[in-house]
Design brief:
Number of domains of chain B: 1
CATH class of chain B: Alpha Beta
Number of helices of chain A: 10
CATH superfamily of the largest domain in chain A: FAD/NAD(P)-binding domain
Shape of chain B: globular
Structural class of chain B: alpha+beta
CATH topology of the largest domain in chain A: FAD/NAD(P)-binding domain
Oligomer: heterodimer
Strand content of chain B: 25-35%
Shape of chain A: globular
Radius of gyration of chain B: 11 Å
Number of helices of chain B: 2
Strand content of chain A: 25-35%
Number of domains of chain A: 3
Number of strands of chain B: 5
Order of helices and strands of chain B: EHEEHEE
CATH topology of chain B: Alpha-Beta Plaits
Chain lengths: 427, 74
C-alpha cells in the first residue's frame, strides 16, 4: 500500500497551492495529489478566455509535468477518492488502491449541477467547468447560429461572450427569476448588467424555467419552457450552479453541513483531516460566522494557509505555524470588450439578510451600481461585503475596509455620494 | 543574500481576481482599474511572492531573479 506524509484530494487551486506551501516548509516530506481530472493544474478562470480564442489551450495550463517532478509532488491523475477510513488513515481511490496518509487535505471543489429535464443529455448541451467542456463548446459552436443559455450568473455571463465570440448570431438567456441574476444582485445592478448584455446582442427572458429540450437525431433543437414558450437552439449553455460530491465521505464520520465543516484553521472534526476551497464551510473570523466561498482567490489563499498548518502539525511544530484563515475574498468577472464591456465583482458576504443596512452608490442611469452591506459588531459599523457592477475603482478600497474591519460610522452619509472617494475609508 | 525579484504585471492579462493581494498583501494591491500593481517589490519574502505569482489564475505576474536576470515565472 502506498503511504504518504501528505495526501491531497483535489488538484486545482487549493490542492496545488497547499502542496506547494507544504513543500516550501518541508523539503523531504512525501506529498501526493489525487485528481479526478486527467491533467496537470490548469486555470478554470482562463477557460472562457480559451473558448473565446483569446489564449491557446496550452496557455490555460498553470503547471507543466516538470513542476511536479521538480517539487517532488506526485500527481495521481484521472482517479477519484471513493472512501475515507479515518481511524486507519486510509483513502480508497477509484482504481482499487488504498493510500495511507499522515495528513489529509480534502479540496474536491465542485461539479456542475446538471440540467434535469427531458432531453438534457442531447448533443449540444454544454457546461463550462473542465478543459474538455471548453474543447466541446469550441467544436460544436462552429456551425451554430442560435444559442440558448439557461441560468444567469457568472457562468451564464461567460457563456454569453463565449457564444458571441464563436460567431453565434442569436443568443438568448433564460432565467427563472423575475430579473437577471436575482439570487445575487439587486434589481438596479441587474439592469446595468442586462444593458451590457443587450448592447452585445444577448437577450434576456425572465420567469422562464426549462421544461424540456426538443431534440432531433440526438441533437438539441429547442428549449421549451414551463410557460409554453419555445426557443430554437443549435447549442445550449447551462450554468445553474456547482455542488460538491461528498458521497464518498458518507461513512467517514466527517461533519458536513453545506460544505465540510471546519474551524478557522480549516481543521475538520477528524484528526489530521483538513478541508479547503469550494467544498469547505469554514469559520470565518472576519465575519464571525460559518462561510462557504467558491472562488479562485479563496481557494488559493486557503490552500496556502492550510498548507502551513498541516506542515506545522506534521513536524511537531518545527516548521510553519498553525495559521488562521483570515481573508476577505473577492471575485471579479469582465465580460465583453470595451467600449461596451461590463465588470461585476463580489466582495465578502453579499447576502442581504446578513446585513443591518444596505447602501447604494450609483444607478442604472449612471451605468454603474455599487451595493454596500453594513453590519454592526459590538457597536462598530463595518462593511461586510459588496457587489460592484461596472465600477472597478470601488473594489480595492471596499475589500480593504472589509478585511481591516474599518469602523465606517462617521462615513455613512458620504458613502452614497457618487463623488465620495472610497479610498478615504481606508486612508 | 536573500533572493529578490523584479516583478512585472501584464495589465492586459490581469483580471483583478486579487489572489496575489490575498497571499502577498505587502507586495501587491489593486488600483482604481481593479488591476494589480506593485507597492513594494520586497514587501513579502521571495517564497511568498513566488506563491502569489503562481496563484494568479491568468499568469499575469512575471518574476525575474534580480541577481541572475533569469525569468523564474511563468
Amino acid at each position: 500500500m502506498k503511504k504518504v506524509n501528505f495526501l491531497i484530494i483535489g488538484g486545482s487551486a487549493a490542492g496545488t497551492t497547499a502542496a506547494d506551501a507544504i513543500r516550501n516548509l518541508l523539503p523531504e516530506a512525501s506529498i501526493a495529489i489525487v485528481t479526478d481530472e486527467d491533467h496537470e493544474q490548469y486555470s478554470r478562470v482562463l477557460l472562457p478566455n480559451y473558448i473565446r480564442h483569446q489564449i491557446t489551450r496550452e496557455q490555460m495550463f498553470l503547471k507543466k509535468p516538470e513542476w511536479y517532478s521538480e517539487r517532488k509532488i506526485e500527481l495521481i491523475r484521472g482517479v477519484k477518492a471513493v472512501g475515507l477510513a479515518s481511524k486507519s488513515k486510509r483513502v480508497k481511490v477509484s482504481d482499487g488502491n488504498e493510500i495511507e496518509y499522515g495528513k489529509l487535505l480534502i479540496c474536491v471543489g465542485g461539479y456542475v449541477v446538471p440540467l434535469n429535464v427531458p432531453g438534457a443529455d442531447a448533443e449540444g448541451v454544454f457546461y463550462m467547468r473542465t478543459v474538455e467542456d471548453g474543447d466541446e463548446i469550441i467544436e460544436k459552436s462552429k456551425d451554430a447560429k442560435k444559442a440558448v443559455i439557461i441560468g444567469g450568473g457568472f457562468v451564464g455571463l461567460e457563456f454569453s461572450s463565449c457564444f458571441k465570440m464563436n460567431g453565434i448570431e442569436e443568443v438568448t438567456t433564460l432565467v427563472r427569476g423575475d430579473y437577471y441574476w436575482s439570487k445575487k444582485l439587486d434589481e438596479e445592478s441587474s439592469k446595468v448588467v442586462v444593458s451590457t448584455l443587450s448592447k452585445n446582442g444577448v437577450s434576456v427572458k425572465t420567469d422562464e424555467d426549462a421544461d424540456h429540450i426538443e431534440t432531433k437525431d440526438g441533437k438539441v433543437k429547442a428549449v421549451v419552457t414551463k410557460s409554453g414558450n419555445r426557443y430554437e437552439a443549435d447549442v445550449i449553455g447551462v450554468g445553474i450552479g456547482i455542488k460538491s460530491d461528498f458521497s464518498w465521505l458518507a461513512d467517514s464520520g466527517i461533519e458536513i453541513k453545506a460544505g465540510i465543516d471546519t474551524n478557522e484553521y480549516l481543521e475538520t472534526n477528524l484528526p489530521d483531516v483538513y478541508a479547503a476551497g469550494d467544498c469547505a464551510e469554514f469559520y470565518d473570523p472576519v465575519f464571525e460566522r460559518k462561510h462557504l466561498v467558491g472562488n479562485w482567490t479563496n481557494a488559493t489563499s486557503q490552500g496556502s494557509t492550510v498548507g502551513k498548518t498541516m506542515a506545522h502539525s506534521a513536524s511537531s511544530g518545527q516548521a510553519g505555524q498553525r495559521t488562521k484563515f483570515e481573508t476577505a475574498s473577492s471575485y471579479s468577472i469582465n465580460f465583453f470588450s470595451p467600449p461596451e464591456n461590463g465588470t461585476c465583482s463580489f466582495i465578502g458576504v453579499t447576502d442581504e439578510d446578513f446585513a443591518d443596512k444596505i447602501l447604494v452608490r450609483g444607478s442604472f442611469n449612471e451605468g454603474k451600481v455599487t451595493k454596500i452591506l453594513i453590519k454592526k459588531y459590538n457597536g462598530i459599523s463595518r462593511i461586510v461585503g459588496a457587489t460592484v457592477v461596472n465600477h472597478p475603482p470601488d473594489v480595492g478600497p471596499i475589500t480593504m475596509a472589509v478585511k481591516n474591519r474599518v469602523d465606517i460610522a462617521s462615513k455613512l452619509l458620504d458613502l452614497e455620494k457618487p463623488d465620495f472617494d472610497l479610498k478615504l475609508l481606508v486612508a | 543574500m536573500t533572493k529578490k525579484y523584479k516583478i512585472t504585471i501584464d495589465r492586459n492579462l490581469c483580471i483583478g481576481a486579487a489572489s496575489c493581494v490575498a497571499l502577498a498583501m505587502k507586495t501587491f494591491e489593486l488600483d482604481s482599474e481593479n488591476k494589480a500593481i506593485i507597492i513594494d517589490e520586497a514587501g513579502d519574502e521571495a517564497e511568498t511572492i513566488k506563491l502569489a505569482a503562481e496563484s494568479c489564475p491568468t499568469k499575469a505576474i512575471i518574476l525575474e531573479n534580480i541577481e541572475t536576470g533569469e525569468q523564474e515565472y511563468p
